[in-house]
Amino acid sequence: MAESSFIPYELISEGGIVMWPIFFCSFVALAIVIDRLLFLRRASINTREFMETMRQVLRQNRIQEAIQICDETDAPIARLMKAGVLRLRGAYQDPSWRVTSRSLGGTS
Q1: Contact yes or no for 82/56 (Cβ under 8 A)
Q2: Is the pTM of this model over 0.85?
Q3: Nearest of 85, 88, 54, 59 to residue 69 by alpha carbon
């Protein structure tokens, strides 16, 4: 009767040539999982605090400061907010926005 516990090298050599690609793919998958876990850990911030800061800054129409806060924060929510703020800033600078805003009952 064969011994039931093998060392990893014995398992790979017993499996033949097919085991090497499986071993390589497993190693690559493990590296990707570790990379994503580190990325998510690094990207985690206090979202409520970030959004409250952004609300306060944007209510005071300090667009440039809002963009700077987004640049300093390394998180997906910050990149999303920056895109929105840049689009908002472009809308404010576009003369057609003023016409649309007035026609909808807004002020400019």
Answers
A1: no
A2: no
A3: 54
